[in-house]
Amino acid sequence: MKSTTTVMVKPQLLCTEREEFQEIKPVKNTRFVKPVGGLWTSTYTPEEEYPSAWVEWCVREEPEWIKDVNFFLLVPRKDIKIYVIDCYEDLERLYSKFGISSEVGLTVMDWEEIAKHYDGVMLTEAGQVHTRYSRPLSLYGWDCESTVWFRDVFEGVKKIEINI
User: For the CA atoms of 72, 153, 137, 126, what is the dihedral angle to 10 degrees?
Assistant: First the structure.
């Protein structure tokens, strides 16, 4: 269990249609498990078959989403405060503090309030496995290991070339 701590976050991969690194838009609450806004990344894995879990998910599930995109390598600062969901209990703790509702299997959080306390929320690969089909709380819809960032906490941003 790693939730609610300052942790070292590995370099992240951003996939975007934009040519330049984008300003991070404030998150807004929705009636879904994910907020609108923020900046979504997945851990950069250059040693693996795919450079991130998000790229792998896109190649397997929605290949058109990964065509004609630009890739940015983001290196998070070491002093960030991130909430890590590595197991179902981490989701329960986050929901107990910031939950709005859990209807029809959708766990709705107060992302706007979470953003006041954390720089981002990371769902690890293990966390995704434990919360994808869980009940009563579930993060079905996150699809893979990923992080939603609420503000620019990166010490480095570099556009990189990746061939998929």
Answer: 60
**Residue 99 and residue 72: Cα distance in Å, rounded?**
32
CA Rg, the chain, in Å?
A: 15
Region 45-61: what's the mean pLDDT?
Answer: 97
pTM of structure: 0.93
Domain ranges of the chain: 12-160
Please give the backbone phi and psi of residue 106, each rounded to the nearest 5 degrees, phi first: -100, 125
Q: Quick check: 5 pLDDT over 60?
A: no
Task: Kindly report the average pLDDT of the chain as a whole number.
Answer: 92
Beta-strand ranges (E) seen in the chain are 12-16, 25-28, 36-43, 70-76, 82-85, 99-103, 106-109, 120-123, 146-149, 154-160
CA atoms of 110 and 121, how far apart (whole Å): 12
